[in-house]
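Q: You know discrete backbone vocabularies at least as well as I do. I have my own habits and do not want them to colour yours. No explanation is needed for now; the record alone will do.
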Amino acid sequence: MTQPVPALFLADSPGLDFLNSVATPVDTPVDWLNDGEGLLDWLQQAQLVPGDTIGSIRAHALPGEIDRLADQARTLREWFRGFVRTHMGHALEAADLSELGPLNQLLKRDEAYDEIVAGDGDASVLRLVRMRRWQSPEALLLPIAESLAQVITQEDFSFVKACEGPTCTLLFADHTRGHARKWCSMSLCGNRAKQAAHRKRAAGH
């Protein structure tokens, strides 16, 4: 079943948002990829797959096929979480490539291509866009793999961080000036930390 709580997109990086697709936003853990429908809903919220593509794959999938795909997505997520947690806090090196075999194998399955199309709102402007052939449900993993590859190649792992909330599991890319970000968001863990500090000061008087 799809999750009633909207997915969290706080990481400032689609690939890290994928890792945050399991979290404890309030008190109860939520896994937005818990089943096939959850995976489809998360992909749509993340805007990684067009809505009409999701509808078509849902309509043509065999019984249980999307649920099995969600299981593959969760396995990919936890493998990549291990890689990120091992390497975050310092820049990646060429030697780290040896650990990325599973991701490269998935990327090799992509059937993406470039196509010239009319510009949005202005048919006189032509632009080059990246398209993808969605040949099977497994193709839904490819935009996820692409977002993980972008984390590897575009983020400075020195500034990939875990939220400092004591029970928070969310990760994010710190793109702030001075790289001083501590929290997944001020509305979640940041405010909790401020309230806790206030209570501690009040108790000290």
Q: What stands out?
A: The chain has a mean pLDDT of 91. The longest strand covers residues 122-132. The first helix runs from residue 14 to 19. Strands lie at 22-23, 30-31, 112-119, 122-132, 160-162, 171-173.
